[in-house]
Amino acid sequence: MVQLSRICCRKYGKFIDNLRLYVRGGSGGMGLPRLGGQGGDGGDVWVVATKDMTLKRVKDKYPQKRFVAGTGGNSSVKALKGERGEDCNVPAPVGIAITTDHGRLIGNLDALGDRVKVAKGGRGGSYRSLFNPSKARPCNIRLDLKLVADMGLVGFPNAGKSSLLTAMSNAKPEIASYAFTTLQPEIGKLMYKDHKQISVADLPGLIEGAHLNKGMGHKFLKHVERTKQLLFVVDVSGFQLASKTPFRSAFEAVQLLTKELELYKKELVSKPALLVVNKMDLPDAAEKLEELKIQLQSPEGFCSLLDDDMIPDEYINFQHIVPVSALTGLGIEHLKGCIRQSLVEEADAETKVSHEEKLQELRQHFDKLSRTSPKKSACAHLHKSFY
């Protein structure tokens, strides 16, 4: 088994979602004892969210993967205070989680321009250190990409996620009739007539046991964490991965997907979710859709179809259940409308909660003032009476 510290990057074809870097702040500059001069501090190393940057570009541009900040200037007769060492900026894409080799989170880059300090420079020499500078400690960090998107497509292989993304957006993922075609995340943009844009991430198909790191497993489940909402995609006729694996109906697929997300990170199933029932162009699709809707209305009554360890702790209440055919285009525009509506409803709910929290803070503030005012008046009265 390869040790974590020896893995430099993880990639799928040309896609890299994890990169290990060596970083070190600059050493401090020498002080000048006879004049009490202070050396300059060493520069810091920062990771900065940069436009149009990918981890592959970082790796190609800096093959040594070493980032060292500038050394602080020495104190001299001409300049008693040495100059500060130059900072080193490491470009990185938005959506990066920065961790130590041991997995401790240092910080996140959630928007362009976000900066996280990953290595601090040494102090310049001064009378406190007998004018000797301190050296910065080197360390290794990891840049772990978690895609940022409004919606994340979740489904078993061959549910038609890639075809759906192509039908809805400008993305061009690989599409074929065999199960595993999406081997790297793909982000498409849904375009609306009023120029509104919504990002949708197509994540590779999960398999049963993904939470145990089977198949793509953790390599792509982590990307679901940074999507605002989930877009479940199931084949209306059900799915069978291989001849040796059991056939799963659309209802079973929904519950198994829920369980895989729940076992990986329970918070994921609390995200708002929509259900897309794909391949409505197939024979008997309408009857199977009605059967699925009945099952989802009271899922407890149909979970006898699953083994006990495959039943989710909580069933997802989908915001919308949308039948589509990615092949013929049936229901695609309606689906885009439902996606937008769901995101707007979530944003409105968050705004309402934020306003209520601010109002509550104001009420507490005024309550506190009203309780303290009488005391202040009483104190002022006593002060006047005394004198």
From TrEMBL:
Residues covered by the OBG-type G domain: 149-344
Tagged with keyword Nucleotide-binding: yes
Top-level taxon of origin: Eukaryota
- Positions the record marks as coiled coil are none
Q: Where in the cell is it found?
A: Nucleus, Nucleolus
Cellular component (GO) terms are: mitochondrion; nucleolus
BP GO terms, sorted: ribosome biogenesis
What protein name applies here? GTP-binding protein 10
**What Pfam families does the entry give?**
GTP1_OBG (PF01018), MMR_HSR1 (PF01926)
List, alphabetically, the Gene3D superfamilies matched.
Answer: GTP1/OBG domain, P-loop containing nucleotide triphosphate hydrolases
**Residue limits of the Obg domain?**
13-148
